Every structure is written in C-alpha cells, then in structure tokens.
Amino acid sequence: MADKPRFLVxxxxxxxxxxxxxxxxALVAIASGNxxxxxxxNPSSNKVKEFDIDAALKADAREMPFPVRQPPTPxxxxxNSGSSPSLEGHRVSTVGWLSSSGAYVQLSQTDAVEDAxxxxxxxxxxxxxxxxxxxxxxLAGHKWVTYRTAGDKQFWITDLGKVRIGVLTRGPESxxxxxxxxxxxxxxxxxx
Length: 192
Description:
Pfam families: DUF4245. This protein is of the alpha+beta class.
C-alpha cells in the first residue's frame, strides 16, 4: 500500500501510531518492576526504599544546636523520608514514616519559635484562613497545641524549652499520639 500524502494524515492516524508505542512503554515499565498501581494501603508492601532514620537523626543530633530525639516506632511503620531545611535562620530536623494505617506521619524538631514552625508544618499552600488552632492536649506530661488545616492535615506542637517538636499527619489522630508520646519519652541523642 502506498503511503498517504502528508496533507491526508490526520489525528486518527497519529492515534493509531501512538497506541503500539504506549503499549510497549507500559510493558517495559511493568516488566522492570518500577511501576505499581498502589492499590494496597499496607506500608510494608510499598516498593519505596526505606529511609535510614537512625543515621539521619544521629547526624542531625551532631549538627543541630538543639537536642534531637529519636522515637521508637510500632511494628509495621516504615521510615520513608528525612530532611533538615532552614527555617527563618533556624534548622529543622524532619523525618517521616508510613504508619500501619497507611498514612504519612512527620516528626519535626527545631529551635525555631512555634510561630515559625506552624506555617512550616501547615505547608506553603496553606493560608492563615485555611488553618485553625483546635485547642490543646495533655500527653506524656506535656502540653501540645493542636492545629488542623482545611485540607485535613492535623499537627501538634509542644515546647520542651530548647526545642519545639511538631508531629503531623493526614491520617488518624492515634498516629500523632504514638509519635508524640514516644518522642518526648526519649533522652536526646548524644552530640558525638
């Protein structure tokens, strides 16, 4: 069959040219194992590599000018992230897990004031109108100020003198309680 003249080629021809190409790309992605659908909420089945929270928090403890604590986590929680950004001239030690409920839980420790930590935890896309202080909670002998964003992100902040600790999640409040009570019960990691 002779090729069509270029001016007769239309969108339907392009569509049928791309279908086999897209099928080939999908086949390669599935065969390589680098593609998942994400139907399962179980964090242990997640293919994301575990983040070494132990090493990250020990490094932060050596470098940060404030005490850094490392909370033990329940069975089934998967460490998945960490960073140490700057916040208004202060450093923040941040680590995160996927809890057994499948929700992301973040722990942030800093010597910045609470007024600076609140917008950091709320996120850049959150305005003051989207954020509400919802009260206080007593947990593990400490007073926690609780917040909720319009996007259902909730976080708690406590002041331990030299350090402010923030715990956030979009998951169940029990995930915050788990990390909050666990982190304040720990002694600060050594500086050496």
